[in-house]
Amino acid sequence: MTRGDKLILVLVLVVALGAFGFLALRRQAAPSPAVAQVVVEVDGKEVERFPLANLRAGERRRVRGPLGYSVIEGGENKVRMVSSPCPDKVCVARGWISAPGEAIVCVPNHVVVHVEGGAQKQGYDALTQ
Amino acid sequence: MGGQTRRLLHLSLLVAGGTALHVFEGLLPALGALPGAKLGLANLVTLLALALYGPGATWWVVGLRVLLGSLLGGTLLTTTFFLSLAGAVGSTLVMMLAFRLGRRVLSIMGVSVLGAVAHNVSQLLLAALLIQHLGIFFYLPYLLLFALPTGCFIGITAGYVLRLFPPAASSYRWKKDPLRGVVPKAWNM
Fold this sequence. Notes:
The complex is a heterodimer. Chain A is α+β, with helices and mostly antiparallel strands.
């Protein structure tokens, strides 16, 4: 273990914590949802968008990807991936998401489900006084 | 045994060992919802090949390992295969550079940690490309934190193995014993 090794360890740690902070800040900066939207993308193209509140608990919707149908299910103001034709089931293991900026990603089936805050009328960026 | 024969034997063993580790790692269950959080066991083989026989031979060892490992694991040419390949190529590239540029500053521990980090980052990059979405980088900080202990562990293991070779045998001259100050004296074999 040389001094250089320790430097690398510290650097990686700092970058990791920085990334945590960055993500936390972005989550805070996201507009609080007037109406939270569930957005479903396949191959980077948006295929579905509906208010999270419209998805009743237990209601399921199918999303078609290259491997077959991924199924999402609603809960009490949250959504999760119930089943997916992918081999590793990372997307199913992700569990429930509900806050803006959270996402369920299924790489093999090219499906991304994420929650967006409702389109709020934003005020001005800044005002000179 | 002649030098050439020994080299061929060592490289073959590294390919075989790497393949076994590659398959074994594929059998381990994914850690909760962290995709790609792996022990990076196969990186051990990359490290040893680099330390003993340099970059040229290492590319062969890594390429054959990924190919054979995917064949045996039944993932050849699937998404998993390409993610493995991206991770292997990325970490090999970074470790090569670390060996070349950092030989005065780093020991095998540092090289190993860099390799583990590179492995995760290149896999995430490819995954983001595949799904056309950067949201997957949400996992980056978790994977980076995870790469620290695994990178150290693999580095220590490689250090132990390299001790069994005379310094002249390795293409990489250690300035210091990589395990000094890391492994308690009682463990020294």
